[in-house]
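Taurine dioxygenase (Streptomyces zhaozhouensis), 306 aa
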Amino acid sequence: MSQSSRPQSSRGEFDIRQVGGRIGAEILGVDLSAPLDPAVVNEINAALVAHKALFFRDQSLDDAAQLRFASLFGELTTAHPTVPSAEGQPHVLAVDGDGVRSNRWHTDVTFLRTPPRVTTLRALVVPPHGGNTLIANSATAYRDLPQPLRELADRLWAVHTNDHDYAEPRTERAAEHRRQFVSRRYRTAHPVVRVHPESGERGLFIGGFAQRLVGFDADDSRDLLRLLQGYVTRPENVVRWSWAPGDLVAFDNRSTQHYAPDDYGALPRLLHRVTVAGDVPVGVDGRRSRVVEGDAAEHYTPASAA
């Protein structure tokens, strides 16, 4: 396990300890409830770009502290384009396992032209077993592609939408969540291969909201997306985080997918999500994502990000 140490202003040193072989690092010795020196913030952001997902154990944070930490990465979005926020917290989305479970691989809010840059998740209630979060590295997935498939992927575009075939809701609460989720319909065309604006890495930008490839029929789209998605979710590209109350996880939404397995039965699970506004994805040829249906969702993400 690789490890490096960095100064944390007057609070001693902190460690960046790699968790997975290709993705994930745990940050030790940083108290996120305290103000962070700008040099520390820069180190954390660099670690996020390099490791894609960062894990912070035993943080005593409330919503205000989570918002303060997330804002270190940039301007915040509101909670969600269509789903209501946590009560009294317009920037916080309650990820509640009580009847509403996103049991599929996805990148957050890719049905908009400007998906979030960073997602932060904070554990409030976790089950005694199960309820982990899996995060996948889409950049190493791209590098794993055979050269001919990589060259094809470089030229592909996919339409992402929030209105697609979900599993049948199991409860009335889940059915209501579904109605809220699609209360505004969005469709956006993104490059299948996105160039990361900070690292320059190429990564597969697909996931559960990517429903059809531009220029292909439904069957061929499904087959090609399934083929590419299989590289993202290979075990060597995935890290699994076992939550404890107080944990905070931050991941780079531009180069990851994540998945919360529905494996904890009727047990309670509650996380709070705060996301940072992102930019418009850019493909290998320099073209930028475009809206197919819907609007710029300025009620959700700052117009300046476009």
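Confidence is low (pLDDT under 50) at residues 1-12. The first strand starts at residue 3 and ends at 7. ok done for today
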